[in-house]
Design brief:
CATH architecture of the largest domain: 3-Layer(aba) Sandwich
Radius of gyration: 23 Å
Shape: globular
Helix content: 40-55%
Strand content: 15-25%
Order of helices and strands: HEHHEHEHEHEHEHEHEEHHHE
């Protein structure tokens, strides 16, 4: 058997040490990435652009944002493909938690949905007494309605409104699904001079570019709540649980909540979101 001299043994040991250090360094770098799956409205409104640099500077984590519909975001979480979620589809969120996909769910903020449309309001929904009444008028007039059709939180809310009106719009010529995010769906509605459902934050952020008017608002069914959910590390051990917790804690921290409450005031004269950490959904609007 060939004997290795001292220099050779030392070289092998040093090489092994360097390899372990390199692998450890890659793993350490990887844990600094936090994958955030979120609804498009938090990005289209500009809120994430305001918050994420603060979080990254404060914690040293780097956030990789994937802006999709809430349904898609939760589908990613259910596969362990995201570390943390920021979504606004309460019924789907409750199922996500019941299925053991999330370890903690916290209320962050709310705004509301509005129905927007052409300024001349051909379906006459400004006179509607409720959101259900508004969509009944749209259906009766056969006015063009643009739906996201993407299983997002907005799409889920829209389907709930149609259901409350006893109307099934799918397959009707005046009802079109874009399969796009909120900002792009709003642009399509503007291009086609149609109606759509949109969260107020995204609408205010893009209002100057789309030229659509708010024609229905204020109904209780239009409440739009956002929760932060940490993906369950016991079910998906590879998720960055520490990074997810850091992000969730950041979103409900007092100074972040203050920043959320001030977001949009300088530009639009009123906040795009209302901070809600520590509250219950039942108490909102009271």
């Amino acid at each position: 058997m060939r004997k290795l001299n001292f220099c050779t043994v030392l070289a092998i040991m040093l090489w092994g040490t360097c390899l372990v250090a390199a692998v450890s360094g890659v793993q350490a770098a990887a844990t600094k990435d936090v994958i955030l799956a979120t609804t498009t409205s938090t990005q289209d409104s500009g809120l994430l652009d305001a918050l994420l640099p603060v979080f990254e500077k404060r914690t040293g984590y780097f956030v990789k944002t994937i802006a999709v519909g809430s349904g898609q975001a939760m589908a990613m979480g259910a596969k362990g493909e995201a570390d943390v979620l920021l979504v606004h589809s309460p019924d789907a969120e409750k199922k996500f938690m019941a299925d053991g996909n999330g370890s903690r769910r916290q209320l962050v903020m709310h705004n509301d949905f509005v129905i927007v449309g052409p300024g001349d309001d051909p379906a006459g929904i400004r006179a509607a007494q409720s959101a259900a009444d508004a969509v009944k008028k749209i259906a009766a007039h056969k006015s063009l309605f643009l739906s996201r059709g993407d299983n997002s939180g907005t799409h889920s809310k829209e389907k709930k409104i149609w259901a409350s009106a006893g109307i099934h719009p799918e397959g009707q010529g005046w009802y079109q699904q874009t399969g796009l995010g909120m900002g792009r769906t709003l642009n399509v509605a503007a291009e086609k001079n149609g109606y759509t459902l949109v969260d107020r934050g995204t609408y205010l952020a893009l209002r100057k570019n789309v030229g659509l008017a708010v024609v229905c608002q204020g109904d209780g069914i239009l409440l739009n709540t956002y929760h932060v959910i940490e993906v369950n590390p016991h079910k998906w051990p590879k998720v960055n649980a520490a990074g997810a917790t850091a992000f969730a804690d950041f979103m409900v921290a007092p100074d972040t909540q203050k920043q959320i409450g001030a977001f949009g005031v300088d530009t639009f004269g009123s906040p795009l979101f209302t901070p809600d950490a520590g509250k219950t959904v039942e108490s909102l609007g009271k």
